[in-house]
Write a structure and sequence with these properties.
Largest sheet: none
CATH architecture: Orthogonal Bundle
CATH topology: Globin-like
Helix content: 55-70%
InterPro entries: GlbO/GLB3-like, Globin-like_sf, Globin/Proto, Hemoglobin_trunc
Keywords: Heme, Iron, Metal-binding, Transport
Family: Belongs to the truncated hemoglobin family. Group II subfamily.
Protein name: Globin
Organism: Rhodoblastus sphagnicola
Number of helices: 8
Order of helices and strands: HHHHHHHH
């Protein structure tokens, strides 16, 4: 019996991750509700895009390319310097929902990814 395909493989691998991240940050630049979270980022998004691509690749079961460079993700700790409330969480999810809808054709995989990302986004909240 073969192992089930990783989420990374199900969504299309590196090409899909790249497209999702690019669309995610484009949505952050264009969605009105994302202005507050966009302001938390530098003008040049090149570095943060690269890090998110590596993180999502590893997080979805693809190549281990994040942790050798960054160590354990410690996502909540890494984001403590930014005020993340319900509105910030919702804006982040709106950007991610846009990107997933555009680039993940497998509806089941998209729903599973969204559920897992929503849990992560909810856990990142650190202010009222």
């Amino acid at each position: 019996m073969s192992e089930p395909a990783s989420m990374y493989a199900r969504i299309g691998g590196a090409v899909a991750i790249d497209r999702v991240v690019e669309s995610f940050y484009l949505a952050m630049d264009t969605l009105p509700q994302a202005q507050t979270i966009r302001a938390m980022h530098a003008d040049d998004l090149g570095g943060v895009k690269s890090v998110l691509k590596k993180y999502l690749s590893e997080w979805t079961g693809g190549p281990v390319i994040y942790s050798p460079e960054k160590g354990h993700p410690r996502m909540r700790q890494r984001h403590m310097g930014f005020p993340i409330d319900n509105a910030a969480r919702d804006a982040w999810m709106a950007c991610m929902d846009t990107a997933l809808e555009q680039h993940v054709a497998d509806a089941d995989a998209r729903a599973q990814l969204r559920d897992n990302m929503k849990k992560l986004a909810d856990w990142m909240r650190n202010s009222e």
